[in-house]
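Pair request: fold both.
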Amino acid sequence: MKILKKGFDRNFNPKPSYRLFLFFGVGFYILIIGLLCFTPQINISGFETPGVEHYGRVVVLLTPFNSLINASQSKNIWEFFWIIFQNITNIFLLYPLILGLLFLFPKIRTIKKVGRLSFLISLGIELTQILLDVLIDANRVFEIDDLWTNTLGGLLALFTYQWLKKQYQEDKK
């Protein structure tokens, strides 16, 4: 909590030098998300997530909770763990971004606003991936589950922010 004591005021808002650091951090993470989500995806030989549908170059996975519903179609334990790993990473994809935005913008610090923001960012990513598949065959997949897993990650960031704020205020007493 030492770093928090130095960089934040008594209301748990970042001081100017930390605010600048957070802006750069958020900007850098946006670049990372761009690289992760918008560059062509490497094809894993012989592996395709169960439930995937192809419409020309556009690949979609529209089955909600596909990992649970189609888990039995995995050919081996590696494929099953790969599918679970993808869901876990999707939960934490937006987590750092939303956490940084929560520190920078007090007006978004509600469940409704964070949920909406996380969902819209996720939807933007998924729709852009479809566009990239149409334009350059980027081998991306529009997954309906990404929408809820990314949104969950944003909400986890809000809960983390609230917990950190509570710890900070208790330390100040």
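--- second member of the pair ---
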Amino acid sequence: MTASTTRRTTAAKSRTAAVGAIAVAGALLLSACGDQTNGGGTTGTTEPGKAVSSAPLFDKLPKKYQDAGVIKVGTDAQYAPMEFEEGGKIVGIDPDIAAALGKQLGVEFKFTSGTFDGLISSLNTGRQDLVMSAMSDTKARQEGLDDKGKKVGKGVDFVDYFNSGVSLLVKKGNPQNIKTLDDLCGKKVAVQRGTTYEDTFKQQAVKCDKDKKGKLAIEAFDTDAEAQTRVKSGGAVADMNDYPVAAYIAKTAGGGNDFEVTGGQTQAAPFGIAVDKDNTQLRDAIKEALDAIIKNGEYAKVLEKWDVKSSAVTEATINAGK
């Protein structure tokens, strides 16, 4: 065989290999496109303008969330273990429950932290789609009332997903010997503004006056961390929080040397995922997804991970708070 024949034969083989490679690449590309069209475990499209997903409850969502692939969640990431910031991310019980809900609905729950007393208004203005922030489901919040019963907004609906009572958080060693709310009369407490704990302290202040046991002074702060600092410094005798939160703070703050929980757990009530009252389709989709993760065991896994199994609900309810 001559040198020129060898070069022609080599060139022909190269062209054949190139054509084969192009064919394989084309087949792979078509295969990948086919997987996306059929869902492939992710969100895609089958026709212009229609999003699809293999998630079991994707079709229950309003179209805007199907298209966006995201549900925006407002929270106040100051309530470990319910929600707190760690390594630049918002983590905790609520984000873990939201992630399980997201698997059922085929969308991402994206958390943004803000001040607690602005969370409901963020729903009403459309900045957020949900609120998950250890928020107690109360009639006042459902109806948009302030602590004096005055109408201040249109209110929200709640999908109830967790049960918790409240507890007093005092300085380690409980130097003022606080055991009950009545022990607060004549003293000063610290609390986060806009919470049900502030309402409880206000009600107790009225009772202290009525019983002539001394004035209960209340200092309200934008964040619970500020209220805790006030108690730690001795400027207030107690803060109030949901029992899981208070217990976590007592266990972790200052290596467990800053605070303790006193007075047990009282006023057990449901926490709710807040939804704008006009967004009933989203509300009902969240309820169905919550029932699904209760049934499949994902909900129980989250509560076991954070050692709060006693706060579990057995089914999703809407507006069960009083």
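Observation on the second member. Residues 200 and 240 are 9 Å apart (CA to CA).
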